[in-house]
Queue: 2 jobs
Job 1
Amino acid sequence: MEQLKLRIREEGKIRGTNEILKVDSFLNHQMDVAFLGEIGKAFRDRFADCQVDRILTIEASGIAIAYGASQAFGNLPLVFAKKNKTKNIAGDVYISQVESFTQSKRPYNIFVSKDFLHAGEKVLIIDDFLANGSALHALIEIVHQAGAEVVGAGIVIEKAFQSGGELLRKEGVRVESLARIQSMSEETGVVFCE
Amino acid sequence: MEQLKLRIREEGKIRGTNEILKVDSFLNHQMDVAFLGEIGKAFRDRFADCQVDRILTIEASGIAIAYGASQAFGNLPLVFAKKNKTKNIAGDVYISQVESFTQSKRPYNIFVSKDFLHAGEKVLIIDDFLANGSALHALIEIVHQAGAEVVGAGIVIEKAFQSGGELLRKEGVRVESLARIQSMSEETGVVFCE
């Protein structure tokens, strides 16, 4: 998605070599809602050959992106996996573990209420970043627990220099990333795969 | 908002008396994007007499609601306050403390990057619930730190049996709640204020 690559180039802030890329001016802190609508349409185009019944994402930064995708697919039901168990959540949940590399480096659980993911549903997973793939693996595990089917994963930015995308594709998951980064550093900026 | 009250009556799950109301079938776990669009329009109508430059909310359940509001106001810039400091966030942030009653009962910090909230901006704060008002107070504090102006707070569901809304209105904050709950229990269901 050329418009996305342009914004990453212009607004992305890089720290270190192949480490941190901040795109919080439009994607995951401040959000450009019109642009997220375009991102949603790009996902719809990528998965135009698929039946999709439901969008699944993970809090917090996935939610707005999934909202745009839901609209592009005609207001599909959307559910986000929660990270923290609060007393507001139902007891009956699907649960899986994410190995974290960006927050506390401790693994954490994510869960989805059994009310909002059903056997036989065709689920499109949406997230902002794909790096080592641990969040995506945990989301796929939750879909499988429900007896539902993963249509694929729509990712805004894939850090292709990490192994998550390659591993998932080898496992047969259809991963569609709107921008794939081959390498990045403060000196070279962002180099995209294609 | 009558359609909202209807959905709270039909889908809301109550625990205890004036304690927990779960509306996670459409508002804050599974999300009905078309309905959130209607909620966004209701906020636009309530604040039709105001100039609004920016929408501010708090992760995670505020994000989708704020997205709908941003669209209703013509794709206004949207920023959400973050709860956990990650290494992906900039150093320069506005920060304030929220006293939590629903999670760990420990206070926690929220923050917004100084890049995404500016002096002189007219800010509409959006959130799903208003109960004791601690999250809203913390968001207002952040707007004031930026030298920006709080136009008001658009709340989906106000637990009017708790003191947050009354306190904020006494302090001069314009609070517009789409559904105000006078009381609720498993026996009586939800009783709305008007």
Note: Chain B touches chain A at residues 13, 20, 22, 24-25, 29-34, 36, 59-60, 63-64, 67-68, 70-71, 75-80, 82, 84, 86-90, 102-103, 112-113, 115-116 (CB under 8 Å).
Job 2
Amino acid sequence: MSIRDNVRKMKEVSPVVASLDVRIRDAALKAVAASLTSRKEEIFAANREDLARADADGIADSVRKRLRFDEHKLSDCLAGIDSLLALEDPAGRITLKRELDEGLVLERVTVPIGVIGIIFEARPDALVQISCLCIKSGNCAVLKGGKETASTNKVLFELIRDAACSAGIPEGSLLQASAHSEIDELLECDDCVDLLIPRGSNAFVRYIMDHTKIPVMGHSDGICHTYVDEYADQEMAIPILIDAKTQYTAACNATETLLVHRAIARSFLPKAAAALADSGVRLRGTAEAAAILEEADAPAPGTTAAISRDDVMEEGDFRREYLDLILSVKLVGSVEEAAAHINRFGSHHTDCIITDNDEAAERFMTLVDSAGVYRNCSTRFADGFRYGFGAEVGISTGKLHARGPVGLEGLMTYKYRLYGHGQIVGDYASGKASFHFRTLS
Amino acid sequence: MSIRDNVRKMKEVSPVVASLDVRIRDAALKAVAASLTSRKEEIFAANREDLARADADGIADSVRKRLRFDEHKLSDCLAGIDSLLALEDPAGRITLKRELDEGLVLERVTVPIGVIGIIFEARPDALVQISCLCIKSGNCAVLKGGKETASTNKVLFELIRDAACSAGIPEGSLLQASAHSEIDELLECDDCVDLLIPRGSNAFVRYIMDHTKIPVMGHSDGICHTYVDEYADQEMAIPILIDAKTQYTAACNATETLLVHRAIARSFLPKAAAALADSGVRLRGTAEAAAILEEADAPAPGTTAAISRDDVMEEGDFRREYLDLILSVKLVGSVEEAAAHINRFGSHHTDCIITDNDEAAERFMTLVDSAGVYRNCSTRFADGFRYGFGAEVGISTGKLHARGPVGLEGLMTYKYRLYGHGQIVGDYASGKASFHFRTLS
């Protein structure tokens, strides 16, 4: 059966899935956990196949790390399921209850979005995490993982689907797409799929956004900034900056640009550059930043980290996501200028100010138009786990629906329920009846 | 200056608008109300120009009603502003506050979306309502109204902009587009406009959705259903149905399809058809529905309202929005079948069950995947005013972000603020530090 046929069936079954009691959804999660444990050798064997194939293809060590599914990853997955079990049911929450008139009661209640398509990178643990988020939230899911983990994904998906069904989740509410060509087929299903969540490279996410009418949630770029204000604690700023740049360079929440207030540039920049150089970070930056480092180097040439001639940047260059040990540097004259640079060249992901001045911090956090605005900590904190969401399906840089790390709440929508006793609008239009809008607890 | 240049400037000023204290935003609303009152003769004179042009063009009476801006419409607008003034500030609400670890505090706070483009029909009161919603919510707005009210819109827009600026809203945060060609220009501004809200005909909304990368909120179709269950109070059902179909046929929340449970079709349908015929409604329907009416007519031919041969419907026909005194009729065998029909052929707008059975009602309201699910009242209640939102910018049939009538809340997004004291992710990754996730009040 084609993806389209399967997704159409999924759309029909989705209201039933949405109406399942949370006890069934939680039982399904427990069944998944039990099955992951009892069938772990089968999963590890499949994963060894993927790893052998990867070795034959000569893939990079960093990618290999993501592909691996071992005891350690399994225990992370099981811990993730435990934390989902501990979370309150996101469905059926009444977020508004209002008596419009005598015997005419309006309720707004949270409900699952319905059918969600998730296309993710080659990480078997992502498959487990995402399916479990969908099960807990009462959503149906079409999953497409990276081809490098095809063998592991196949075992994991079948195990999760079978465990979920055995607990009472209807057949056809979880689906795996395996061929790459099925992605394009899925993009066409705008009458059946309510939301697409693509994860992966910028180019890939951009491709998805440009080739479907289905709403897309996610981020293409992660151009995050750390701004060291004139009132910064410079001793605190340096380890934050090193962490934000180097703790995991391939992450979307790694800092790509350092902004420094001119008033402290001469004292701060040489120290920061030295520490960054020690961590293997190459600096790029404006001619102004380069000149300051050159000046600092003058008394004892070659001792201070510098910005090489080729790394002097023009304004347009600041729209670069390195995902590598490279950092852009620019000086600004005020919080407002820092915020304007970030709003213009950033990707509205996560941006931080280092300052001891409360007013500067509030100004920055108000003016910067990003999903996350931080003070005195690393941009790397932007993550569903670190926010205490239990798990995340991704991070959104869009401003509609969900913004920032997206956990269970981002997989929900709501509906209005109106309970009447024969009320008609004509009576309110004619003045025979009138609304009194009383909030009910 | 082109729309693009203006919108780019607006994008730059939007964080400032978003950070304005609610006292300034409320003062702007009061200034708008005062100016509307003191300059009303000027508005009425401009409106007479529009009406004279409309008369010369021989427009329909129903359209003329919408164009008119008189004392009555003015007082509605002023009442709308009063109710907006009475509403709590939608910005700056903290919806989550959590200590991730000692001295590392996460807050989620509501903020305006930013720059909103609204393209609306020829109704001067809509311009007032929409601009005031944007002012109250701290958003910037590009407004494009119908050309039939160009003269009235011009006076109204300038008056609103000047009043708002005099109260402290920055220049350039409200903009009017007047030429139709400017719509296409606006659709290209996906780097500056955060949200588009088109209102108008299905074809128009569809055109907007298909020609922009900017997120669009709205509805193209309004195919609403009233389902008369086997346990319906038939006496109650008929006036509800008449109201839902006829109280304002051009509205998106008017019922277009009547579903009747087979068990009561023979007793209910002939009575309903007679009442509908008395209200001027023409019936279309399945062969099965037509046969029941024909049978009822048999004892005294010509006395019962019938479905003519040309009005017998095939399945695919049910995806029709009449916006007229025409109603589709179909019989179903269960609540589940009614819900399946609605989910398949409806537009996920607003659908109602008429029943005295609690279980059937809950089943219907759970299974129907629409923004509004009603029991025992008219679908015409789906409206921001009637929900007590004070005003609405439109009704959304999408499931992401805002669903159903959209008032102030739908014009807001949120950002995460994280306050630290030098925390870095490396310490949490290495186990040197750990999260404790404590919810703060």
Note: Chain B touches chain A through 78 residues (CB under 8 Å).
